[in-house]
Amino acid sequence: MTHNYKSNISSRMLFSLGLLGLCTTAAATENGVPTTAFGVYDFGAGMMPPPSSTGIFGLRTGYYSANDQKDRHGRSRDNNFSLDVLTLGLAYIHMTNNTVLGANYGFGGVVPFFKMDGSVEIPTPGGPLKLEADPFRMADLLISPLILQWSLSPNLFINAQLQIMAPTGDYDKNRLVSPGLNHWAFSPIVNATYITDSGFELSSSFQADINTRNQATNYKNGVEYRHEFAAGQHMGAWTVGLGGYYYRQLSDDEAPGLDSGNRARVMAVGPAVSYFKQGLPPVWLHVYKEFDARNRSEGYSIGLRIAQSF
């Protein structure tokens, strides 16, 4: 069993188990939702594909839904809040034979699209004012000019990335929700995967988002941190277990008239599975439920990823 499992680990490196970590899913802390995606990395976060002449393509679709918006104390706001976000992202990663610091160098990018449906009620002297928006547009382009992959042993895989989010998506400061954020973000990322000889896997992703100012609103998000994780057992072509994420702002937002700092946080956990069989595209699926939210929405997310080399 151990011999067959180690052989299968080598073949899995033909695909990028962390391929679609470049994808984004929601708006910004300016509107109570993080700048870049979480709930993306689960099993195989530390693995990138081997060097090739063509690279690898992937598709990620995600769905986020929330009907509860929490204040700074974790209490639900009485505003009939609703947010549903369907994301579609086409990703590409190309690992090369060039080495940097003993790691294989690569690069990649993601073109994402969002279908958003949001509504909220704002109290006014004349009664509640309901705001709604349902755009379906291109979101902000994500570029990774630097990806470094280390395979430190047959069981341990680590990669480091620099991700840049460019303000190319559709944006309207007068609309309740927008696929684009209208600011840049720079994100250092470190991912790791350890798999025992018996097939038990631990994977983690650590990321920080450093944001520039939205010139249309003069709003600047604080530095954001996230830790994503997955733990599960490989059973033949399947990996089954639990995954989740922890998200927290490390510094205050900056905006005219903002005095509370508006720091957000949330946690999530839920089942995660992946399927890999030689000759077929690998597939990952997870369903996470959020809890302990502050200064943001609290809901659930579903993520589905598929990768294919050519």
UniProtKB/TrEMBL annotation:
Highest rank taxon of the organism: Bacteria
Keywords, in A-Z order: Signal
Signal sequence segment: 1-28
Record's protein name: Transporter
Organism of origin: Pseudomonas taiwanensis
